[in-house]
TrEMBL record:
Its EC number is 1.8.1.4. It comes from Planococcus donghaensis MPA1U2. Disulfide bonds join 47-52. PANTHER family: DIHYDROLIPOYL DEHYDROGENASE (PTHR22912:SF160), DISULFIDE OXIDOREDUCTASE (PTHR22912). Its cofactor is FAD. GO terms for biological process: 2-oxoglutarate metabolic process. It catalyses: N(6)-[(R)-dihydrolipoyl]-L-lysyl-[protein] + NAD(+) = N(6)-[(R)-lipoyl]-L-lysyl-[protein] + NADH + H(+). Keywords: Cytoplasm, Disulfide bond, FAD, Flavoprotein, NAD, Nucleotide-binding, Oxidoreductase, Redox-active center. Signal peptide: none annotated. Binds 1 FAD per subunit. NAD(+) binds at residues 183-190, 206, 273. The active site is a redox-active disulfide bond. This is Dihydrolipoyl dehydrogenase. It comes from the Bacteria.
Amino acid sequence: MVVGDFPIETDTLVIGSGPGGYVAAIRAAQTGQKVTIVEKEYIGGVCLNVGCIPSKAMISVGHRFEEAQHSDDMGIVAKEVSINFEKAQAFKDGVVKKLTGGVESLLKGNKVEILRGEAYFVDENTVRIMDEDSAQTYKFKNAIIATGSRPVEIPSFKFTDRVINSTGALALKEIPGKLIVIGGGYIGTELGTAYANLGSEVTILEGAPDILAGFEKQMTSIVKKGLKKKGVEVITKASAKGVEETDSGVTVTYEAGGEEKTLEADYVLVTVGRRPNTDEMGLEELNLNMSDRGLIEVDKQCRTNIPNIYAIGDVVAGLQLAHKASYEGKIAAEAIAGEKSEVDYLAIPAVCFTDPELASVGLTEEQAKTEGFEVTAAKFPFGANGRALALNASEGFVKLVSRKSDGLLLGGQIVGAGASDMIAELGLAIEAGMTVEDIAMTIHAHPTLAEITMEAAEVALGTPIHIIK
């Protein structure tokens, strides 16, 4: 890094290189801006390095291992199936390395200047970029804050070698014999499912009445059924009190049903939410409007109350999703370029890579009714689909929520194999203002899981072919 007293000038400074930051930087460069991006840890941020991507790689490993042991129904009997966990971790790390290297190449290919270090705001046009050895002042016309979030640490569960967060869970050197997961949200349930597939005895402690808040109970009930089949114990309305740690494991104390109980395990994974990274970067010097939780307030162009400073991703309100951050990054970059782009979260999907997968977009039936719509809710089961039966994956359904008066699609929910990919069709349909008739009249290839969406649309029209009306 250049050291000196003279400020270096740039058009747009992006702080953070996660899926929000690097996308914002590339899009800004495409509009002709001179762009500088600063990253204090690793290119690609949490998602690519220790979040979305490595967790899905580990989930994939778990699926392969579980299928190798339990495919008797399909005539496949494997004896003495084993897993080389060191090799599995190497596979995961290889996926991460390939993607993060690709992101760095994309930034360089778009002539984005990459800086390593921490950014500290001096004023609304100036930052100091600092690393271990030096500091350099940068002057910018516009800045985009994309610093992401970090796991919440419970005071009575300080992170150690045995009390781990999601990052620690993805870096274990061994498959735990027993694993306790505190928090039944999407991160805890995904990682708990992955390790259950790898052979761990998993217990999930959730303080709320149910796991996977945000998804309909019709959907989560199928996931809970799958967890039970894997031997995962889910304890709801449970309050984690404390942990005692030894060299070989942990003892967790929790309260449920008015009783205090203990559980022993090799590790305890704490997944009770994430906190925005908006501290220790000098934001107090700017007098930004912020919430009590440390979230930065922005308008529909991701602009803060300071006109030349923008914020995206986990540091602003809304779902903490990588694709939301990327979307906002494009909006902010285009707004800086003078375009009229604005955020519109009408069709932002939410996906959970459980077993089976969960996916939702638009309004649920309950939300639509709350907003005053008279709706039709139509479901079609995976069990009546040829491709699902051929995959031995018959659990689940597609549900479409449409406006009763004209069939306008308001929302869709999918639970089942491939839900994470199937939800894109429904997102496009909502974004394009399509009706259930449009979906039903679209010819879907046979035999595919996508046909389930078409069949659900036919149910909504009252003309189902493959189930009795």
